[in-house]
């Protein structure tokens, strides 16, 4: 890290001292508003960190459970200020998945801002208690207690093929390297701009790292869109208008949802200067519509898996690029990151050839939590520009043209749906847990070159009498195990699963049946 | 026009079943989510020249294939 760069925790302290009364986060649902000021954020998290430092016996990561309550950010910062990593879990994650994550981490405490009804070990500290600790007198925390450059700062879980989610560990250095680059995206975020950042993604989805940390670093205000607002179009447009947001961070899908209404334009959001997209394929059509509705805003496409801290490549999609390049590129790597395209033997391929995208650089995760086997397969160390860097095999297919990266989809059974990573095997394994299901195959359905939904073919161990009711029951059972976005839209019973000559499941043939 | 709209819907739902069951609640059955819904409105605008703003209609007014068809017809007449 160079000398001019102030690290994230130091910057939060400086911002709080400079703009104590500025709102750091606002969450509004209907007429109910919750917000926190910069000084509130800093003082509350200091006291909560002090309490954790005095009370806790281990340095185990802390689970933070909730939705878009500003107290979530207080909890995140308190953890890292006390030298512990935090692991955010959104309320929309089903109970059984939350239990699986908690079982993996075995946290000493779980900080909750919403009610958590799960059977878990570890002490649950509820919102009332958090607020009591955070507003009690005294209790500062010395900066030396905080997580160091090589310590894990946060851990975000992603879908695993066996049905057990994997915890991606991101260190403070990874995050700082990411931020140093992210503040230069699009028009760039000046230090004293007091920008408003739109937060669409839940905190357990690493897309939120972009808006949250750009906001924390540059002393801005985070305007959160809770799920209830996102699900109610009238409230959504009202909230977007009210936000006065300068920087938009979302999946392209969410922008598509907003574009459905003609009112979504620079008239509704006159201060908007940048759209920062990540998490899924950005199509030319989406960009074309955004350019028309927001003629003065820049549209930035980025790419990166959770394993390399949110994003590592960027390109501003100009009118010219949008009209001449199909599909759109995902951009050039940030400083400190190198992109290699390799063949199945790990040999680097020349420009233009398709292969697996390998990310080398200073924001690559130190590995999955407690998963040596997967770490050996996906992570390693290599030399680049005379120094040692970690690398990560993404499992994404791609190619380079003049140093510009193009994304070509997944090489394995993982898909991206509305920005969420889904292991098809994970969904299949959860079908098999349901009584009466013998075999399950889940396949992606495509529209405009993008996964639009999942479909499932099931083989029942007994005779199916009322298919409709059975499928409705299966859907209900699956909802208890998996997040909504992982539930296939179309579920059908098949008499048997088509297989290829060598006995493997013929996914293409299953696709034709569904 | 009805057939064209039903085909559009079947395509967006990734399921032909909407055609045989046009009174089914598309949101409750999980056939359509907010993104597919946004795409549907875009497709309606492109194919029929009818603009439906999601902020001006209640979800309960457009939650089945038949209700969508009725609304598009009404707007085309207007």
Which structural class matches the secondary elements of chain B? mainly alpha
Total count of helical runs of at least 4 residues of chain A: 16
Under CATH, the homologous superfamily of chain B reads ACP-like
CATH topology of the largest domain in chain A: Rossmann fold
Q: Count the domains of chain A.
A: 2
The CATH H-level homologous superfamily of the largest domain in chain A: ANL, N-terminal domain
The Cα radius of gyration of chain A reads: 23 Å
Shape of chain B: globular
Mean pLDDT of chain A: 93
Biggest protein-protein contact in the assembly = A-B, 25 and 20 residues
Query: What's the CATH class of the largest domain in chain A, please?
Result: Alpha Beta
Mean pLDDT of chain B: 86
Number of strands of chain B: 0
Corresponding CATH architecture of the largest domain in chain A = 3-Layer(aba) Sandwich
What is the helix content of chain B? 55-70%
Helical content of chain A (DSSP H or I, runs of 4+): 25-40%
Helix/strand/pairing category of chain A:
alpha/beta
Describe the protein in words.
The complex is a heterodimer of chains A (514) and B (78). With 514 residues, chain A is of the alpha/beta class. In chain A, the strands form 6 sheets. In chain A, strands 2-1-10-9-11-12-13-14-15 form a 9-stranded mixed β-sheet, sandwiched between helices. In chain A, a hairpin with a 2-residue loop joins strand 20 (387-401) and strand 21 (404-410). In chain A, helix 1 (8-18) crosses helix 7, helix 2 crosses helix 3 and helix 2 crosses helix 5 (127-135). The mean pLDDT of chain A is 93. Chain B has one domain (2-77): Non-ribosomal Peptide Synthetase Peptidyl Carrier Protein, Chain A (Orthogonal Bundle), CATH 1.10.1200. Helices cover 56% and strands 0% of the residues of chain B. Chain B is globular, with a radius of gyration of 11 Å. The relative contact order of chain B is 0.20.
């Amino acid at each position: 890290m160079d000398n001019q760069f102030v690290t994230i925790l130091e910057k939060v302290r400086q911002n709080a001292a400079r703009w104590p009364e500025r709102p750091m986060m606002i969450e509004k649902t209907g007429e109910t508003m919750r917000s926190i000021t910069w000084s509130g954020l800093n003082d509350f998290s200091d006291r909560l960190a002090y309490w954790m430092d005095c009370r806790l016996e281990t340095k185990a990561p802390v689970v933070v459970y909730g939705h878009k309550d500003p107290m979530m950010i207080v909890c995140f910062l308190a953890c890292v200020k006390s030298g512990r990593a935090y692991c955010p879990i959104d309320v929309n994650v089903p109970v059984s998945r939350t239990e699986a994550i908690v079982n993996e981490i075995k946290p000493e405490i779980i900080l909750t801002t919403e009610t958590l009804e799960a059977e878990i070990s570890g002490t649950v500290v509820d919102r009332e208690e958090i607020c009591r600790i955070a507003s009690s007198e005294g209790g500062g925390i010395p900066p030396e207690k905080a997580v160091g450059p090589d310590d894990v700062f946060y851990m975000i879980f992603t879908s695993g093929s066996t049905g057990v989610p994997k915890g991606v560990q991101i260190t403070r250095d990874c995050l700082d390297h990411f931020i140093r680059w992210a503040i230069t995206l699009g028009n760039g975020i000046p230090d004293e701009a007091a920008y408003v950042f739109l937060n669409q993604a839940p905190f357990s989805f690493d897309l939120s790292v972009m808006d949250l940390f750009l906001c924390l670093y540059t002393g801005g205000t985070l305007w959160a869109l809770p799920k209830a607002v996102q699900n109610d179009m009238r409230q959504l447009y009202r909230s977007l208008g009210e936000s006065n947001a300068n920087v938009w961070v979302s999946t392209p899908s969410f922008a598509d949802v907003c574009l459905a209404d003609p009112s979504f334009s620079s008239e509704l959001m006159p201060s908007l200067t940048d759209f920062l997209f990540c998490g899924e394929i950005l199509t030319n059509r989406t960009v074309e519509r955004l350019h028309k509705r927001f003629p003065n805003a820049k549209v930035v496409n980025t790419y990166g898996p959770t394993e390399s801290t949110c994003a590592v490549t960027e390109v501003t999609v100009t009118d010219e690029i949008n009209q001449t390049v199909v599909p759109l590129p995902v951009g050039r790597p940030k400083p400190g990151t190198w992109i290699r395209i390799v063949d199945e033997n790990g040999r680097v391929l020349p420009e233009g050839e398709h292969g697996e995208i390998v990310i080398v650089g200073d924001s690559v995760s130190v590995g999955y939590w407690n998963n040596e086997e997967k770490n050996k397969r996906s992570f390693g160390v290599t030399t680049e520009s005379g120094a040692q860097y970690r690398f990560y095999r993404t499992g994404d297919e791609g190619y380079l043209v003049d140093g510009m990266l193009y994304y070509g989809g997944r090489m394995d059974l993982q898909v991206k749906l509305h920005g969420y990573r889904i292991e098809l095997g994970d969904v299949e394994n959860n079908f098999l847990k349901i009584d009466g299901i013998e075999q399950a195959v889940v396949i992606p359905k495509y529209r405009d070159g993008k996964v639009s939904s999942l479909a499932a073919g099931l083989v029942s161990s007994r005779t199916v009498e009322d298919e409709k009711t059975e499928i409705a029951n299966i859907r209900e059972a699956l909802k208890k195990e998996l997040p909504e976005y992982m539930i296939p839209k179309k579920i059908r019973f098949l008499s048997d699963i088509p297989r290829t000559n060598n006995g493997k499941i013929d996914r293409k043939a299953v696709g034709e049946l569904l | 026009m009805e057939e064209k709209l039903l085909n559009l819907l079947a395509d967006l739902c990734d399921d032909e079943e909407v055609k045989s069951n046009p009174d089914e609640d598309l949101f409750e059955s999980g056939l359509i989510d907010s993104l597919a819904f946004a795409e549907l409105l875009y497709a309606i605008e492109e194919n029929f020249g009818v603009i439906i703003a999601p902020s001006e209609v209640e979800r309960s007014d457009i939650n089945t294939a038949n209700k969508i068809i009725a609304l598009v017809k009404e707007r085309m007449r207007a």
